[in-house]
Specification:
- It is found in: Cell membrane; Membrane.
- Belongs to the complex I subunit 1 family.
- NDH-1 is composed of 14 different subunits. Subunits NuoA, H, J, K, L, M, N constitute the membrane sector of the complex.
- It is a multi-pass membrane protein.
- It is a single chain.
- The protein is mainly α.
- It folds into 2 domains: about 10-345, no CATH class; about 385-450.
- It has 14 helices and 6 strands.
- It has helices at about 15-50, 65-75, 85-100, 130-150, 155-185, 190-195, 215-220, 220-235, 245-250, 260-285, 305-330, 335-360, 370-415, 435-450, and strands spanning about 110-115, 115-120, 200-205, 210, 415-420, 420.
- The strands form 3 sheets. A two-stranded antiparallel sheet has the order 1-2.
- A hairpin with a 2-residue loop joins strand 1 and strand 2 (about 115-120).
- The longest helix is centred in the last third of the chain and has 46 residues, at about 370-415.
- The protein is globular and about 80 Å long.
Length: about 450
């Protein structure tokens, strides 16, 4: 039986009982997925570090996460006296609920028959479904900020502020990485974006018929790579888990939540957000529920209930990517995090969108290709000139700063001691390429030998 890909006209016709079944399936899938993902993450990281991981509670330690969940649910809920009680209780709910709602527009498969009713394997869809996912992610950040603010703790407040600043920079880059997909697919509906990746087409540029792959990860590779980085920052995972930096903020925004049920809701929301951003990556770039090659050679690969298996397989691989990154990369400094988001990801995204839009315009049959290329050349030359101007100004500032540091060292040579004892110039800033470390050691040795 042929199962066509659904479109927007196929939604809104399900009976109420079928919509409830779909909603319950998504809820149960996410809850069970969180339990299995915590166990999987512990196992994978332990094997990468030559350890066994959980292996006592249940077969292969499968009941360890169940025991942890029961412990947090039954543990005494302590509340500090100085907290804002309303905000303190609402913050975990605000961060958890949008994480579940974002999954309502994710397509799991094509049209199927459930108890005799033809329905798409997706709870609902909207003409702007991708924007709904971004909106839910933004609302979830309010929970983090309010958790820090309501706790009335300096460490928690700093964690909340870090998360708000982080989401501004990385969500802008994430939203820009979707623009090229919208240009390519011509829609913001998740089901229709998946349908557009069903088969490859051709690009007609200057009379040449260039074949294009079906999945957008190949034709829009820069957008996919930028999204893969931003989804780590969006979910506050390593190496961008600065809102929870234990070495600096004790525990971050949830410092005052101990290990009660509210703390479990924070952890639940984090893993559900990981599933959500992974499902969005699969939907927009990895063909959605379509079977990968060479499975796609089989005629029945994308029919019936088989596409749900391919979707879950891709979701598992995406989660393993999160675990691999966590086990491999260290946490970056906060200034490096913000600089990377604003100075690297966003400019690269804007440049790639310009290039993708240019090629999109060149594909139009009525396009004036000479005019489009001329405008593109002017924009590129102008951007290069602006970059060169700012680079020259930065070089002059660096040279001026180097001269100031040289003057500081000249003053240090004139008064090499403090309190009668030789003091090496170790408290002055070290600038790469201005004052080498070998020179500092040599000056310290000269000062010491001169006093002797």
């Amino acid at each position: 039986m042929n199962n066509p890909a659904p479109n927007l006209s196929d939604f809104g016709h399900d009976p109420l009982w079928l919509s409830i079944i779909k909603a319950l399936f998504i809820f149960v899938f996410l809850m069970v997925g969180v339990l299995l993902s915590v166990w999987t993450e512990r196992k994978l990281i332990s094997r990468m570090q030559h350890r066994y991981g959980p292996n006592r509670a249940g077969k292969f330690g499968l009941l360890q996460t169940v025991a942890d969940g029961l412990k947090m649910g039954l543990k005494e809920d302590l509340m500090p006296r100085t907290v804002d009680k309303v905000i303190y209780f609402l913050a975990p709910v605000i961060i958890a609920v949008p994480a579940f709602l974002a999954f309502s527009v994710v397509p799991f498969g094509p049209m199927v028959s459930i108890f005799g009713v033809r329905t798409p394997l997706q709870l609902t869809d909207l003409p702007v479904a991708v924007l709904l996912v971004l909106a839910m992610a933004s609302i979830g950040v309010y929970g983090i900020v309010l958790a820090g603010w309501g706790s009335r703790s300096p460490y928690a407040i700093l964690g909340g502020l870090r998360s708000s600043a982080q989401v501004v920079s990385y969500e802008i880059a994430m939203g820009l990485s979707f623009v090229a997909v919208f240009l390519q697919a011509g829609t913001l509906s998740t089901s229709e974006i998946v349908a557009k990746q069903a088969g490859g087409g051709t690009w007609d540029i200057f009379g040449l018929h260039i074949p294009t792959p079906s999945w957008y990860v190949f034709s829009l590779l820069p957008s996919f790579l930028i999204y893969a980085i931003t989804m780590l920052g969006e979910t506050n995972r390593v190496p961008f888990d600065l809102p929870e930096g234990e070495g600096e903020l004790v525990g971050g925004f949830h410092t005052e939540y101990s290990s009660s049920l509210k703390f479990a809701m924070f952890m639940l929301a984090e893993y559900v957000n990981v599933f959500t951003v992974s499902a969005v990556a699969i939907t927009l770039f990895l063909g959605g529920w379509h079977a990968p090659w060479p499975i796609s050679i089989w005629d029945g690969a994308n029919t019936g209930w088989w596409p749900m298996l391919w979707f879950f397989g891709k979701l598992v691989l995406a989660f393993c990517f999160f675990v691999w990154v966590r086990a491999s990369l260290p946490r970056v400094r906060y200034d490096q995090l913000m600089a990377f988001g604003w100075k690297v990801l966003i400019p690269l995204n804007l440049a790639w969108i310009l290039l993708a839009a240019t090629f999109r315009a060149l594909r139009l049959p009525e396009a004036d290709r000479a005019t489009i290329l001329a405008i593109g050349a002017v924009v590129v030359i102008g951007a290069f000139a602006i970059w060169l101007r700012f680079d020259t100004a930065n070089q002059r500032r660096r040279e001026s700063r180097a001269a100031e540091i040289e003057e500081e060292f000249e003053e240090l040579r004139e008064e090499p001691t403090a309190g009668g004892f030789p003091v090496p110039p170790l408290d002055l800033p070290h600038y790469h390429g201005v004052v080498p470390a070998a020179r500092l050691h040599q000056e310290a040795k000269e000062v010491t030998s001169g006093s002797n």
